[in-house]
Amino acid sequence: MRKIIFLEMLFGFQLLGFCQDGSLFTPQNRKAFADFLFCEKDYLRASDEYAAANTTAKNDSVTYNIGLCFLKMNNFEKAEEIFLSLKNSSLCEESKLLLLKISYLQNRNIFTHADTASLHFENPEYKTASRKLLLAAQIKAGMMNRIFPTENILEKNDWQALYIFEQEFFQSGRKSPTVAALFSAVVPGAGKIYTKNYGDGITSLLVTGLFSFLSYDNFNANHKTRGWIFAGLSAFFYSGNIYGSYVSARNYNLEKEEELNENFESYLSSKNYFIPEEIEEKCK
Amino acid sequence: MKCFLSVLIFSCSLYAQTDWQRWQKSEINYVVKIDNSERSYSLRADDPFEFLLKTSAVTYWFFVSDLDGDNCPFDPSCSSFFLAAVKTSNIVEGTLMFADRFTRDFNVFNRNDYRVTRFGRLADPAEKYLLTLSPHQK
Amino acid sequence: MKARWLIFIFALFFKTALTQTQIEKQLAFAESLFTQEKYFEAVTEAKRVSFFDSSHQYSFKVNRLIAESYRQGGKLSEAVNYFTKAEMSAQNSNDLFKTKIEVIKINIIRRAFSLVNHQLDELEKDARFASDSLSLRYWRGWNYLFNDDWENAAEIFGRIDSTKSLKNICEEVQKKKYSVSFAKAISVVLPGAGQFYTGNYFSGVLSFGWNALLGYATVKAFASERVFDGMMVGSLLWLRFYNGNLSNAEKFAEEKNGKLFNETLEYLQKNYQGLKP
User: Fold this and answer.
1) Which of A44, A203, A239 lies at the smallest CB-CB distance from B106?
2) What class has domain C19-91?
3) Is the pTM for the entire model greater than 0.95?
4) H helix runs in chain C, sequence order
């Protein structure tokens, strides 16, 4: 009985001892707080707390979390620096995959600059993810004509979606600025109608036509001064219409490209760039 | 109550974005200044030709444009567009851009390809119509 | 047996007491950072308190501290968010009322006129705050003031003894304001008169000149039976300048009123010593 009491007093004092040393700023407590901040999306504070937790004894998973924080804040430079430092750690494969994602997001040509080491993955899931991301980068750069070889790494829906994007990147109904200008030279406003600016096209036609008619009418009525004024205005609007049609076709193509890029990025983002969610999401 | 709480929690995670950069004390200002004038009446110019253009524009604004009301649906207005067009390209290209802009100003049918600015005008900057765009403009 | 239980309870109590002391120390640390104007760090340390305070005993104080820090940093949306959280953990009606007033003050600055009125109405209906009606009236006055409604603001401040100076300021501003409708009305009758009324004399003269010239040209064209010319000059030119004259009268009156509004707000922010948002 006395032994039991003695043991339990010892246990009690050990608890006491723990309490006196266990302040809120121990590495474990800081890490727990950092995890909480990470889940609250308060990434800057979380990164500070993880860094503080790492000062006494460096921990690869804590360093990895710091990298995740910077990645979430789109601070790619710092995230890259951290993941590069983990290349020889236990989280090497996850880091390599996220480095690939960062390279894609920074519009680098990952298929030309990536060396074989950075594309080599032991984990089959990560290997598939890297091949999918590479494929997306190739489609965006317009390097693909057919994507048969990769059909087996994608589900059918993804394969179909990527195939459509690939077709659109490759050809996509673009308008020729020269053709638009020529159309407008022949019929004022026709070039704008060709680029689907119907209102502007009809306006061009009406305005150029009106001033041309006024010029003709005034010359017929022997009002030479007015005739030349209206002729000058007619020439002014006619040349503006040709220039405007050329630029309109160019802008049409740029807008189409921008829309396509946005849709493609939106699609990839919805798939988390094919990166398995569990390597980026630490919260449930 | 549950709905309110979930909105509050969701908005907490949105608000966390504001703390992705360190911030300092910032004095709250009662006065909110909104400047919707896109015209600069300054005659400062880099060369005599630009000075001549600006003088003509300012004269036009002062004696005509400021008196006939706000008729231009675009931002910048046609005269400001012309100044910007000539400044960023040359007189010939600038004049062609202006002619095109003036035609589009006459369009009474449909104008739905423009972004609407906070003052209700249609955003139509001159740089969008240059023959050669910089990579940034693309 | 009893002794074992006693020891166990003693150890548990001591651990809890120590943790509570740590949390109190941490909260004091967060408050000291706030005093030193290190608001970002104050929010971090306050969040730490919140995380370790499993019993939520300090929720109200922590949320208030975070909200105040955000307000000092000019981050009003976040401040409102945390004041609202503080409301939910308020422990008495006095704390609840003070926190609700902080939210109202921020919404006044954000010019959320209808929302503030609604919030004040809700507080007036609440029987717990029946004794605070004077305070609610005071903030309603400020709400009208920030909404550029000086007449109503003067009327409200006039009913509170301690705010005669505010009432006088509001009445003075109301007197100095230009009437937009009057400016437009006199411009309808005499082009340029509205601009004269608002002190833009040169613009008024030019406007009158253009309207007179184009009006004369139009009448002369019709008189000489050049109907088409008369219609073109009348509709494309004279009407354009006439409408321009009306819109300028309105615009100048609004600009002058806007300038007066901003100057008064700036004056109140810098010089008024009483309670303000």
Assistant:
1) A203
2) mainly alpha
3) no
4) 2-35, 39-52, 59-72, 76-88, 93-109, 113-125, 133-146, 150-158, 164-176, 180-189, 193-197, 201-223, 227-232, 239-271
